[in-house]
Amino acid sequence: MEVGAEKINPYHGDTRPKTDQVRDMFDSIAPAYDFMNRAMTFGVDKWWRSVAVKMICKARPTNILDIATGTADLAIKLADKINPAHVTGVDLSANMIEIGNKKVEERNLVDRIDLMTADCLALPFDNDTFDCITVAYGVRNFEHLDRGYAEMFRVMKPGGMLVVIELSTPVNPLVKPFYKLYTGHIIPLAGKIVSKDVRAYSYLPESIAAVPQGNNMLSLIAGAGFTDCRFKTLTFGTCSIYSAKKP
Length: 247
Fold this sequence. Notes:
single chain, alpha/beta, 8 helices, globular
């Protein structure tokens, strides 16, 4: 089943698969990625990660997979807060992983965090390997979302926990107009200036608007076999955290 976000590609007119386009986009914006994350969310993205990590801490996982790890912000926070857990981070973009590895080294976490390039639709891990899987701001970039969740289910141990953080569209009529102005005009302009990638930060609001949200996302997660699927929204509905378990 194809979902809306799968039809939204980073580069208009580019006929390559979405996976290839996403890889090139993140390779392009990697140097500006951390700065833009802080700037466009006014730093609130750090709090969103903290909320997710608190949820995960209760499960006390020891072997965590962070998919679409980017520059390893969530992987580092997980390793900091959940000791002695080991975190494996995977991402399509080699440039993002390179920056992530530098941050891991600076924080003396090389013995507890491994980062590598990998395709989330074909994870290079055995069945039933991880007792927790996380994805932060990444599922809307999947070329096939149902296959992505199926892979997460495959490599997760029975009883394991899934936590997905994703940007979402607020429904509050007082918030929505300001959100549309900010994401549709201000962020793309700032992204163009800072990252030099004309399309990357126009793709952002387009992909957020198209990705399944709320109960629709839960249906996809449940369709992969997960149970106890639930979600909560944060910051006027601009972020959603989804959680589920593998029976």
